């Protein structure tokens, strides 16, 4: 039986794709490069090519790996070649926006839970993301801290160790994420309770996120962060007792 949303002390979050709209940020940057070159770019096609490039054994840490990725996808999209464009795509991460509901929802949730970021981004990028979101996190784990990317269980175990040092346990954590591949599947295999934020509910396919080998049914399922925050508020609202 799924626990109540009120039974957790910590919410751990995937950041890129769940809280930060990296797909829009990437597409905007590529569209700008295309416009300067006198052409256009299909955003969804770009995301599919990006997703494929990121699965390469040669992939580096995100978002620094965008320089390598751009060199691979640019000729397929009819975009100009040049390291400067890959660096521009990488550096655009510093200006990516949060989803419209992220900042307010996190502020609401932080009144009840300790919020912990678990991002496959490097620390320099996470610093920008956290600022964009209002710096709501009790703690933040990046690939610079863990040395590995999700879905590697070692990333999660470092967070478990941190929570234990804080006086909690894995059972006190609700893991919140949009990526089935990076988060929902592995969190289930590790015995965590999870919450899927289906950001692409109105779009087909997986966009820029790697497609999982199989779909994992989450413990909680919402289409946005505000839906999660509303559900927590509803669960906490005292029931009206009839006279």
Automatic annotation (TrEMBL):
Keywords: Hydrolase. It comes from the Bacteria. Pfam families: Hydrolase. GO terms for molecular function: hydrolase activity. The keyword Hydrolase applies. PANTHER family: HALOACID DEHALOGENASE, TYPE II (AFU_ORTHOLOGUE AFUA_2G07750)-RELATED, HYDROLASE, HALOACID DELAHOGENASE-RELATED. This is HAD-IA family hydrolase.
